[in-house]
Write a structure and sequence with these properties.
about 75% helix, 8 helices, single chain, about 5% strand, 6 strands, two-stranded antiparallel sheet, mainly alpha, lycopene beta cyclase activity
Length: about 230
């Protein structure tokens, strides 16, 4: 199977089903459509660096063409994943709850700050810590900002946060493990800890969890009226 066929099997069908049964309406629509573009811009440098370093790669014949170090289908993944996760989140989010106070902002922001520091430390160690360190150092600062700004809103909306990030992450873990077994892409053991489950490296599990958290938390904040008032 090619990388493009992977999209046709694993990403497009559930996305189309979700959109056909509950397309986001204004005022949630603008953030839903903007999120894939943000993900594309933010993730592209990180992904190109990983491929350049040889952390992961793609066998010949599995991709159409490469833009930089990354195949076209990977950029398409950056767009499709937020659309899929966002469409599912729209189904489970419900109405925005009130904020839960400032403690959640401090605790949540502090926790992610520690994980960002851990990522920098692992990045400095390099070698088998490189993939995990790059992921935490690149994505945890985003979560620091999200929770420092609206951690109380995210905590108040925690059911939607857990479901919206958790279930798409489980699904993408399954799809990723299948793709690795099929040889659509590979992960270098040189830059991973050797931990994981069902053939899926721990670092890949953290990657999909972080990317889905970034999408879900960003959308929940964009959809919350209190967050918009704070921006003003």
């Amino acid at each position: 199977m090619t990388y493009l066929a992977f999209h046709l099997v694993f990403l497009l069908p559930p996305l189309l089903i979700l959109l056909a049964t509950g397309f986001p309406r204004p005022p949630r629509l603008w953030a839903y459509l903007l999120m894939p573009l943000i993900a594309l811009v933010y993730t592209t440098p990180w992904d190109n660096y990983l491929v350049w370093q040889g952390v992961w790669g793609y066998p010949e014949g599995r991709v159409l063409l490469r833009l930089g170090y990354v195949p076209l289908e990977e950029y398409l993944f950056f767009l499709l994943q937020p659309l899929l996760t966002g469409a599912f989140l729209h189904r489970v989010a419900g109405a925005p709850p009130p904020g839960a106070g400032g403690l959640a902002r401090v605790v949540g922001g502090g926790m992610w700050l520690l994980l960002a520091a851990l990522g920098v430390l692992l990045l400095a160690l390099g070698g088998r810590y490189l993939y995990l360190g790059l992921t935490l150092a690149y994505f945890a600062p985003v979560f620091v900002l999200q929770w420092a700004f609206g951690g109380d809103l995210l905590w108040g909306w925690r059911r939607a946060l857990l479901l919206g990030a958790g279930l798409p992450t489980l699904y993408l873990w399954f799809a990723d493990a299948w793709a690795i077994r099929e040889g659509i892409w590979w992960i270098s053991p040189r830059y991973t800890l050797g931990l994981g489950a069902f053939g899926l490296p721990l670092e890949e599990m953290v990657f999909f969890l972080c990317t889905n958290l970034a999408v879900v938390q960003g959308l929940l904040l964009a959809w919350h009226p209190e967050a918009l008032r704070r921006l003003r």
